[in-house]
Amino acid sequence: MFVDGVAQPVGTRAFEILELLIGAAGELVTKDQIMRAVWPKTIVVENNIQVHISTLRKLLGGKRGWIRTEAGRGYRLAPPADGPARATQVDAAAAPVPVRASAAQRTWPLIGREREAAELRSLVERELLVTLVGPGGVGKSHLALEVATAWACSRGVEACHVDLACVSGHGSLVATLLGALRGAKEPGAGDMGDVLREIGASEAVLVFDNGERCVDALAAVCETIAASNTGVSMIVTSREPLRVACERIYRVGPLAVPDAQAGGGDIEASSAVRMFVARARAMGTEFPADPKTLQAIANVCRRLDGLPLALELAAARAASLGVKGLVADLERSLLSLSGGLRTAPPRHRTLRASIEWSYVLLDEAERIVLRRLAAFPGIFTLEAACALATCDQLSRDAVLDCVVNLASKSLLVVHSAGLSKCYSLLESVRAYAFDKLEEAGEYVPFGERYAVSAEMDKPVRLAPRAASIAAATPVPASAAYV
To answer: How many domains does the chain have?
Structure first.
């Protein structure tokens, strides 16, 4: 939005509220109207409105500025008390252009990602290409789209969402990109020259989603666009980096889960718990805030490693099973978790399907090493991984390369241990790898190899978790082995 002729950044939700107030032309806009317009399919607490109104009020003259509150009813726009001569001018005509239809609109609010959203926004302001890297179901797309939309609105430029989930090669990628740039529902005809002409010299935000399916082709396309137009901003979501010169990698980890010793207040403040409860409420489920229930919810969040997709699926299941039944169900089978949105893509309908999406992209050696690493119950070193997975068909060097690749493809969590690195598997990934280990008939021999090796049973001393952008998300240190 523009205030007194100066562009001011404002979030998507706040901007939508401002549009309502301007459209009402001084008439009252009730809280219910705001809820229905801004969060049409989501149940949110009233505090959400107050947060965005507070943001707008600071931009529009403070407490005695343009936004008036009618207690218990809603809000209206009205000239400040000191008269229209000094009133802050809100230029609705100069407001940012709408986000292009191809930029997918989310129905869920972004929960527990305030720090990540601020860091990503800062990166997008400075970098030409930012790649969000993380495991399936961690919320990369949601985060990228929220930040891209807010950034585009603040700059008055278009945001274009390019879904690459069904793209398999360079030609298919170019056609999909052309279709998105032209606002068409179908892929467009043309080549890379047509893409560059469509983009031109204008500023824009391009969000390439699910890049792991065509990572080589996407790397080439992004480099070509970067060389042609340095005014464009590109955000990529992928389970592995593009590895191009202009790329800045931003690693997205699961949401924070409460410690096993956490009390009620700390549990409720945990981002994973907040998301689980919000999803459950949106599905019509309410939980009592007693200590026993809160501990059960905390156990669910820890069991699911704070993975947003898993929390969403679990919240849907809790509507039928209750928290106690959900805990028992997860103990029986973690991978069978299902029940998400009907309109979700197949890879987001079950936890197994999300991991399968990554597994099919691995080569045979990487698949072998991944399933063998399931023998580790917690954190392990590179030396321990090589000792366990090496065999006649796979040399130590081959196993080392596979471990590096699996970490790069977000199937291993990387931890800092002094000057070294060590690794672990998310619980859902380990459960999937265990199934593959049993299918291959390797459960007994590699389970025994782990059990008899004293070198694989030494605890790892982890470095404190860093707060930096590249920080890995650790699992509890109590489950650490080498």
So the answer is: 4
Both 303 and 339 in one domain: the answer is yes
Q: Are residues 21 and 147 in the same domain?
A: no
Indicate yes or no: pTM above 0.90: no
Q: Which domain holds residue 125?
A: 114-251
Are residue 246 and residue 298 in the same domain, yes or no?
no
Same structural domain, 380 and 474: yes
Shared domain for 210 and 243, answered yes or no, is yes
HEC readout, the chain: CEECCEECCCCHHHHHHHHHHHHCCCCCEEHHHHHHHHCCCCCCCCHHHHHHHHHHHHHCCHHHCCEEEECCCEEEECCCCCCHHHCCCECCCCCCCCCCCCCCCCCCCCCCCHHHHHHHHHHHHHCCEEEEECCCCCCHHHHHHHHHHHHHHHHCCEEEEEECCCCCCHHHHHHHHHHHHCCCCCCCCCCHHHHHHHHCCCCEEEEEECHHHHHHHHHHHHHHHHHHCCCCEEEEEECCCCCCCCEEEEECCCCCCCCCCCCHHHHHHCHHHHHHHHHHHHCCCCCCCCHHHHHHHHHHHHHCCCCHHHHHHHHHHHHHHHHHHHHHHHHHCCCCCECCCCCCCHHHCEHHHHHHHHHCCCCHHHHHHHHHHCCCCCEEEHHHHHHHHCCCCCCHHHHHHHHHHHHHCCCCEEEEECCEEEEECCHHHHHHHHHHHHHCCCHHHHHHHHHHCHHHCCCCCCCCCCCCCCCCCCCCHHHECC
pLDDT, tens digit (0-9, with 9 covering 90-100), for 127-163: 999 999 999 999 999 999 999 988 888 888 888 999 9
pLDDT tens figures, 407-459? 999 999 999 888 889 999 999 999 999 999 999 998 887 877 777 664 555 54
